[in-house]
Amino acid sequence: MPAISYFHKKVSHTHFIRMPMHNSFASPTITRNLTLNNHRYLLSGLDLISLVEEFGAPLYVYDAATIKQQYERLTRAFSGLEHQIKYACKALTNITILRFLRSIGSGLDTVSINELRIGMRAGFDARDIVFTPNNVSFEEIQQAIELGAQLNLDNLPMLERLGQVYGSSVPVCIRINPHIMAGGNEKISTGHVNSKFGISITQLDEVVQVVQRYRLDVAGLHMHTGSEIVDTDIFLQGARILLDAGRQFPSLRFFDFGGGFKVPYSSGDTETNIEELGTRLTELCHEEMRHRGQPFYACFEPGKYLVSEAGLLLVKANVIKRTPATTFVGVDSGLNHLLRPMFYKAHHDITNLSNPYGVLQRYAVAGYICETDTFAWDRPLHEVRQGDILAFHNAGAYGIMMASNYNSRPRPAEVFLFDGKAYLIRRRETLDDILSTHIIPDICMETCTV
Ligand SMILES: *Cc1c(COP(=O)(O)O)cnc(C)c1O
How far is the CA of 424 from the centre of ligand 1 (A)? Predict the structure, then answer.
């Protein structure tokens, strides 16, 4: 089948970077600090193909400048409110990334005791770390208390247990499920009625009873209604419910409005209007402070918003395979390295870094795992040749953290671009790493067989 030309009429040529010598166009990319300079793609000034030559493929690359820009945009949007940003570190937990976020003023949101420990090893003060577990044991909660993190509980039995063991001595934040439907899809929306997260707002009376019975010190109320919020009205509805619930708890010092701010995954994609949200939420909170007659501060727990756009996954095209229906690009990666396209049907933009001005053709981009791990179907890319390096965009959040050793493949290395230099912040795994937890018991297989 001949290559299909991609140029739709509706796409204006002004959207393409013109190269007069070649009479061809390089497609624009969604990654903000990515530039095309003399046939080479540079991320914050560093040549990506050179990084692959130095560190190998597949390779995760993170741009510090993008993270900082996002952090600053968020703090600016909420500058009218006393607030704290708690980076939801499950999105990207590399200890260097955590240290960087600490250096620019962030706190942390953690969902497991190990995330909490990693945060502390990154230098965070436990008091700047929120521990928001779901369905963990009371022992794990006790460990977090001993480390000194801010506890955020999301079920009545554990709240009761906390009261029995600690009474009023441990301040607690309570995660409420306001039952609003937000979030990009079923798997990432957590605030609806069937969600396992949070204590239902309809059970607020029971929460109040437990709080009174044990004289619990309720320091804050929390909601996290899901990833990929685009509708400010829905977010504010949830916030309003949370603020109303807060009237039952006079000792409150803060409201934690969670994360879930959406970033664009392709040009023209929807995103949270963070400035509008900031203005309207600030107004709502100030109104509530007047009602309460005392101030409180706000917390936000962005994960994706801070790191998604900062990351690229660089992979190599191993095989170009033409079938009667499709041209496949087979790459040296798969659902073991970037699961989102398969797990969430998420769209990730792809750029052929090696051939920016090649003729656009349609491809299916598939991984090397023995599953149907297709990253993209029917995707226009500048002609891909064997050995070309492709970049998956928006790979900073929930990329390597969801990676596995399936098919006994090692996880990729991670590189951090900071202040004009590239730093290896996680080495590539080896076969020995994969085998390191295996144990061969001292039995003789030969004589044990029947
Ligand atoms: C995952 C999570 C977040 C961050 O979600 P994003 O969509 O990445 O912003 C925030 N708070 C809690 C409690 C979470 O579990």
Answer: 26
> Domain 78-302 - what CATH class?
alpha beta
Calculate mean pLDDT across residues 291-298: 97
Which pLDDT tens digit goes with each residue over 197-215?
999 999 999 999 999 999 9
Q: What is the DSSP secondary-structure string of 246-304?
A: HTT-TT--EEE----B---SSTT-----HHHHHHHHHHHHHHHHHHHTS--EEEE--SH
Which of the residues 89, 173, 285, 370 is marked catalytic?
Answer: 370
Nearest to 379 by CA among 6, 116, 2: 6
The predicted-structure confidence for 373-386, as pLDDT tens digits, reads as follows 999 999 999 999 99
Where in the chain are all domains bearing CATH 2.40.37.10?
5-63+308-434
**CB atoms inside a 10 Å sphere around CB 3:** 12
> What CATH number is given for 5-63+308-434 in this structure?
2.40.37.10
What band does 447 get if pLDDT is binned at 50, 70 and 90? low
Q: Is 212 helix (H, G, I), strand (E, B) or coil?
A: helix
Supply 419's token pair: 């202040």
- Closest residue by Cα to atom 1, ligand 1, is 88
Q: What is the pLDDT of residue 228?
A: 77
pTM score of the predicted model: 0.92
Rg (CA), the chain: 24
Which residue is it, tokens 């004289």? 215
User: Ligand 1 — pocket residues by CB below 6 A?
Assistant: 88, 90-91, 109, 111, 132, 224, 227, 258-261, 301-305, 397
The CA-based angle 225-231-235, given to 5 degrees, is 40
Angle, alpha carbons 237-245-238 (nearest 5°): 15
